[in-house]
Amino acid sequence: MKLILKKLPKKKNKLIYLISYIIIFLVFVGTDFIKFNIEGINFNLAKIFMMIPIVILAMDIIRNKKLALNLNNRLLKYCIVFLIIWTIYSAITIYRSYDFNSYLIENFFLCIGVIDILFFIKYINITENKNTIFFLIILALLINCIYYIYVYYIKKINIGGFYHNTNDLATALILGVLTLINLIINIKGIKRVWLFTCLAIFLFTFFSISSRACILGIIFGCFLYLILNIIRYRKKIFRKKSFIIMTFITIIACAILGAFVLNKYLGKISLSPVEDAKTSNEIRTNLIFNGLEFLNKDLNWIIGIGAGNSEFYLRNFSIYSIYEMYSFHNPILQMTVTYGILITSGFIISYCIYILLLYKIDNNLKEIAWVFLVFLLSLIVANISSSGLFTREWIWITFAIIIAFINKEIKKEKIE
After folding, report:
1. For a designed S-S bond to 373, which of 207, 250, 316, 358 qualifies (C-beta 3.0 to 4.6 A apart)?
2. Per-residue model confidence as pLDDT tens digits over 308-328
């Protein structure tokens, strides 16, 4: 705590930074940490603090008659506009709501998540405060790892620490492992002993959870980052051509790896609906085909079924057996079913822009850019492990940190 207070800026925004640090710690320590019930609705301390930026931004708008974000890149501006459009459209889908409670939950996370992204962009300098931010993330995840190891090996209970479930903890640990590696490389002295100890605990927990998607995700992310580095050191005239060629090679290699080498590890992969689905892969296959059936009705391909309706549809309109699993376990599929192809395309394009800008920043030797870049690349695969990625507090704050970092570094380096 002394380290955190010492690192706080000595300006009038000291309170703002302290609030941001508390938010980061609370969301990464997990949703089951200090939770309570308000009028039948589950809350936790993280949600409460994530709502504080609403007040700060509102006061800023009232005082200045506008909200000046100072976005430093045209592509990034488009991404922020998309987030606002997504939020507005999600709220509008109330006219199609079958489950009002789920509608409120989904819109709460989307609205609060976007507001926190705007808050971090406007007020928080990620680069100058990276060590404090990384320390808080590591401390929060370390608490979860120790708790997980205790309940799993001593109490024989398989829960994800204070996270929603083990898959969510494994997904967050990808960022934790990358963060620790970055600190080990860049911090010298006795601190490295503690960092290596934390890394050993993180890896032990990560492989104890044995989330297949997360394990494959971090391998996939590191492999793609390696390919990008190979491209980077080639002559500039060949860069674009090499990028296209290596992308196709990577896709083909991953397809072959998934279809043949990993088939035994992942279990039998079916390309058609399974009549009596029981295994995880069979159920996930049927979830995909059920989602496609929902999209084929009316104009759902374009407008989706509406926020908060996915569980209701899976419970009541499923054609193929899903063994009482009422989450798509696939954020992109869920987004497509919920909001339609236009919103999903906007998200995918925005995600690719974040990766592109991080790659350009990393090319300018920013030592923390690669952490965020590899995490986003890993999440392309690892995202399917979570039952509801966009209703998790920590993922929105992670996006807030990454986008705020991109905006600040683009301004410094004048990257276009």
Report:
1. 358
2. 898 888 888 888 877 777 788
Question: Residue 81 pLDDT > 60, yes or no?
Answer: yes
In this prediction the pTM is 0.87
CA diameter of the chain:
64
Distances (CA, A) of 220 to 204, 370, 380: 20, 14, 9
CB atoms closer than 10 angstroms to residue 307: 24
**In whole angstroms, what is the distance from residue 372 CA to residue 137 CA?**
13
Burial of 285 (0-12, 13-18, 19+ CB in 10 A): buried
Kindly report the three-state secondary structure assignment for every residue of the chain. CHHHHHHCCCCCCHHHHHHHHHHHHHHHHCCCCCEEEECCEEEEHHHHHHCHHHHHHHHHHHHHCCCCCCCCCHHHHHHHHHHHHHHHHHHHHHHHCCCHHHHHHHHHHHHHHHHHHHHHHHHCCCCCCHHHHHHHHHHHHHHHHHHHHHHHHCCCCCCCCCCCCHHHHHHHHHHHHHHHHHHHHHCCCCHHHHHHHHHHHHHHHHHHHCCHHHHHHHHHHHHHHHHHHHHHCCCHHHHHHHHHHHHHHHHHHHHHHHHHHCHHHHCCCCCCCCCCCCCHHHHHHHHHHHHHHHHCCCCHHHHCCCCCCHHHHHHHHCCCCCCCCCCCCCHHHHHHHHHCHHHHHHHHHHHHHHHHHHHHHHHCCCCCHHHHHHHHHHHHHHHHHCCCHHHCHHHHHHHHHHHHHHHHHHHHHCCC
Q: 106: exposed, middle or buried (C-beta count within 10 Å: 0-12, 13-18, 19+)?
A: buried
Nearest to 178 by CA among 219, 122, 117, 208: 219
Query: Are the beta carbons of 170 and 394 closer than 8 angstroms?
Result: no
**Residue 238 banded pLDDT, cuts 50, 70, 90:** very low
| Alpha-carbon gap, residue 193 to 18, rounded angstroms | 28
